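W.,

You were right to be curious about this one. When I first looked at the sequence I had no strong expectations either way, so I just let the prediction run and decided to look at it fresh. Below is the sequence, 136 residues in total, followed by the output.
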Amino acid sequence: MSLSSFFLSDKRPVFLENIRCRPMFGGNGYYINGKMFALVREKSLYLKAGSNNVADFLLTGQLPYIHQCFGEYFPTNFYSVPLNIVEDEVQLTRWIAKAIRQLAQAKESAKASSALDSRQKKTAIIRSAVSNTFLF
């Protein structure tokens, strides 16, 4: 089953009944209650990550989605999902549920700190890593 089919099929988990899909970052963004929790782009699935689930992604060697626009790199809080998880509907459902829970946590975190400052720090880290990679 394709990822888009999983999200939009009649057999999807009950908690995914009210999702919406719209174009985002050259792929499809999946939203629940107006908040994006997943991105499907080029046959890859990226899920919302936060303090409660980012370790799941990092321990499996997954990286964040980095959006490139006009030569600029913008890291996101969406991490790629390992293929073995994507192929196992039970595990995939668990990972998606964790990603959706991050939406509520992200709202709380936004109150405590400035999201712009966080994004600027991530962008600086990515720019540094990219420029260091291409030094000769």
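Here's what jumped out at me. The longest helix spans residues 89-112. And, maybe more interesting for your project: The longest strand covers residues 72-80.

Coffee later to discuss?

I.
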